[in-house]
Amino acid sequence: MRNTAINKQVQDNLTPDDVLTDLLAGNERFINNDLEEVSYLDLVQQTTTGQYPKAVVLSCIDSRVPVEQVFDQAIGDVFVARVAGNFENEDILGSLEYSCAVAGSKLVLVLGHESCGAVKAACDDVKLGNITHLLANIMPAVKKSAKEIDGDNTSANPKFVAKTVENNVLLTIDRIRERSEILADLESSDAVKIVGGVYSLQTGKVTML
């Protein structure tokens, strides 16, 4: 049973590749229904005075993608930023910068997921209240996919939706590097790695892009 939270020494000794390997190993445990047994009360008590998460995950708000469980992580292990469509904006960028530059996380993982409702809505150019503004962040991925996928360019085409989910992750990573000098510098010095993946609702598996 795990009863020890990550401390600064453990965090300092991790590399970005170590963290990615750890998250993917956790995802394998999740897929195999072999989750690590954890003493959560011990971790609660150990993290009251500080935290040293190893990664920050930018994910969708979808209730079917519980990030900590998907990667078999516990209290104090990961930061999670969530917004419908898992894209970056100024507030998300600030959160990612805090996670890495201030709190010492070694990995930024942008996590899209199969059949994303926000992506489908963007594919269909939905107009509805504040959702319209939100979906504008995903439209670059829709336009990119329209040049790459034949057939219907709406949510009625599963291949178009799947490609747009992938493109949205990849374009978000590009914009994180472009819009955050802090994160770009950390990545160029190998202190941080910025990566992306897609979660399968059918299998629970995260496939890296």
Question: What structural category characterises the helix and strand content?
Answer: alpha/beta
Number of continuous helical runs: 10
Listing every helix as H and every strand as E from the N terminus to the C terminus, the arrangement reads HHHEHEHEHHHHHEE
Instruction: Note poorly predicted spans.
Output: none
The separation of the N and C termini measures: 32 Å
Major β-sheet strand ordering: 2-1-3-4-5
Summarize the biggest pleated sheet: 5 strands, mixed
Portion in strands: 5-15%
The 3D shape can be described as globular
Please provide a written account of the structure.
- The chain has 209 residues and is an alpha/beta fold.
- It is built from ten helices and five strands, in the order αααβαβαβαααααββ.
- The protein has helices at residues 8-13, 16-31, 40-46, 67-70, 90-102, 117-123, 131-136, 139-146, 158-179, 181-188; strands at 55-59, 78-82, 107-113, 193-199, 206-208.
- A five-stranded mixed β-sheet has the order 2-1-3-4-5, sandwiched between helices.
- β4 (193-199) and β5 form a beta hairpin.
What would the keywords be for this entry?
46% helix, 10 helices, globular, 209 residues, five-stranded mixed sheet, single chain, alpha/beta
Q: Short description, anyone?
A:
It contains 10 helices and 5 strands, in the order αααβαβαβαααααββ. It is α/β, with parallel strands linked by helices and 209 residues long.
List the helices and strands and how they pair.
Elements: H1 8-13, H2 16-31, H3 40-46, E1 55-59, H4 67-70, E2 78-82, H5 90-102, E3 107-113, H6 117-123, H7 131-136, H8 139-146, H9 158-179, H10 181-188, E4 193-199, E5 206-208
Parallel strand pairs: 1-2, 1-3, 3-4
Antiparallel strand pairs: 4-5
Helix pairs in contact: 8-9
